[in-house]
Amino acid sequence: MTCYLSYIKQELENAAILNIRSAIRLVGTSSWQESLLRAVCNLPLVQRAVQLGGQPLDHSVQHYAFNKGQQLLGQEVELLILDVSENYDSNSFSSALGALKGGGLLIVVGKINPLSFADKWMERALNELTVLSETESLPVVLPTEQKPIENSFSQQFEAIAKIEKVLIGHRKRPLVLTANRGRGKTSALGFAAANIMAKRSVRILVTAPAMASVEPLFKHALERLPEHAQYTKGKLTFEDASVQFVAPDELVSKRPECDLLFVDEAAAIPLPLLIQMVSHYHRAVFSTTVHGYEGCGRGFTLKFQSWLDSHRPGWKSCHLTQPIRWSECDPLEKWHYKTYLLDSELAAVGKDEVASNALVELDAESLFNCPIKLASCFALLVNAHYQTSPNDLMMILGDEKLSLFASFNGDVCIQCVLVVKEGEIPHSLITEIESGKRRPKGQLVASTMITQLALPQMAAETSYRIMRIAVHPDLQQQGFGSNAIRQIRLHYGNETLTTSFGATSELLAFWQKNGFRCVRIGTSRDHTSGCHSVIMINSVASWLSQATSMCADSLSYLYSTSLRTLPVEMVKQLPLPKSITPTPFRSRKLLDNYLLGSANYESIAPFLLSILLAEKVESEALPDCIIRKVFQQWSWQECANEFGVAGRKQMEVRFKQSLGKLLL
Q1: pLDDT category, 586, cuts 50, 70, 90?
Q2: What is the mean pLDDT of residues 451-457?
């Protein structure tokens, strides 16, 4: 035992000198591993040890369940113990790994049972670490004679200065701050906030997909301010200055006043919301991770920065490459990126270079044996969708119900589609789902059809949910996505195809163009995307007309309640509710009186929706002010604010003009 402990001690000392993180895998009996781990925890260089997964070692080691590594965000540890003997979660592990500081050590214990190619992938990756075996001789470790490596903070100082300049410089010149994980972008926001608050009476708002991800911002700002600064959850105050967290949907809907806006992990916020933020707030900093689990960032840089080029030509950028928690030569970061394909980059491709866009189905075994092809597919998925994560890689390799279709131009993946098999739910399970006792994993659409639309027959049949569709950014807006949908339709014949996503006007138009019909729109915004989720279906089944009809009818109520803030562009794309009661002649006459000026709005309001539906007006033809006032029942003042007029009188003039033209 002594020789193993000496080896690990030497590894820690070398790691501290080089400011890197080491990693060791233990192979041996449980009792040998536990005894060695306890001894390691008592080494002087280990100030804090945490364990992820498995059974808790003892009270001196802080224990987290295998899927709770996100709770370590913003923290620092010297020893991270990963126990894979019972289960593992790649997203959770990636989060926890970010808390391991330079000079720290990762120790992996337990053996993964290789039931799938995902398990084999992880087992292969873990065996690339330094292995200490109870039954084999120790590997050689040589002491380093290098001097301690001091990290350079020059890039972070530059970023802090640029953040501060957003407040004092010209308006409408937002800053986009990008960085790989561990580069200190969130701490830079915190330091900048503290510098500004110490000099000015200023109100700073901070938004992000989750408040947990910006806790380090408040921590670093508080440390930099004098002692009488006060922090309560989500708000830091110093004299007359403050920095406060606001959720993205609340920020967009309520538009609270501020002098400066910070948007962290911007890649995980939908583009339409980002555009609303930068349009309203003329002094803003958008920060995002461009690798790792928080959000890929690469699709964000292409789309959002393209919009900024057109609408905010004076925008600034700053990219951080220097790590601040470990050295640039950190071997564990390289291993992590390689294991989860986080460093996979897309090569450029021109339309004229593409010889074929035919999709082929790739099985898990071929992807396991050809990591280059898998890396190309994953790079495209990461680029296309902010939620693509290490767990998605494991799902591609390990979920038997998931199919990956892709087409290549040489070794470059130009388009790919992830499809999940759903349905075939037995009657006994349907009954339990109906009663709320069960919510089976992997049955997103099928379960929703049972519980929210009372259509269990759909769940009993086979269906295929298109989970992701991605097209190479150089080939977008050229018909490749629609062509991929057509190929998937041909592959599955007359089987039902479904999809679910955070609804935007652009996405709704794409899926509608490809034959999908809306059957359900969520009544609350997703806490991550800030969008209402929508379910759309392409099917020849008879129940589809019932589902779409129920969806349309429900909207007459939802537009004035849960969907009051739904953008008018999306209201125009969704099906109109049917007129439930016939429109009496006197109601139509009353409308004429209103347009002539004799009747007031309150007299005609109870009948106006029925009149419009009876006229069979196409949703695309509905004027924006009628959608807001009649369908979503906004107040006159809310409408006036939306359309830039002084008050009810001017707003009602515009409303009457629009209504009269529509019903001529």
Answers
A1: low
A2: 90
Where are the alpha helices (H) located in 27-153, listed in sequence order? 30-41, 90-97, 117-126
Distance CA 578, CA 575 (A): 9
Q: Is the pLDDT of residue 342 over 60?
A: yes
Q: Which of 16, 33, 43, 32 is nearest to 100 (CA)?
A: 16
**Type of residue numbered 57:** L
Q: In a 3-state reduction of DSSP, which class is residue 173?
A: coil
- Taking the alpha carbons at both ends of the chain, their separation in whole angstroms is 91
How big is the chain, counted in residues?
664
Q: How many helices (H) and strands (E) does the chain have?
A: 26, 21
249-277: per-residue pLDDT in tens? Answer: 899 989 999 999 999 988 878 788 899 99
Average pLDDT score over residue span 170-178 = 95
In three-state secondary structure terms, 68 is: coil
pTM for the model: 0.82
Burial of 348 (0-12, 13-18, 19+ CB in 10 A): exposed
- Give one word for 265, left, alpha or beta, with left for phi > 0 and alpha for psi -120 to 50: left
The predicted structure's pLDDT at residue 31:
93
Strands (E), 399-472: 402-409, 412-423, 462-471
Return the residue matching tokens 């910070």. Answer: 262
Q: What is the pLDDT of residues 597-636, one digit of tens each?
A: 888 898 888 888 888 888 888 888 999 999 999 999 999 9
Helix axes 390-398, 90-97, angle to 10 degrees: 150
Spatial contact of 463 and 424, defined as CB atoms under 8 Å apart: no
Q: Which helix (H) or strand (E) holds 475?
A: none
**Cβ 484 vs Cβ 415: under 8 Å:** yes
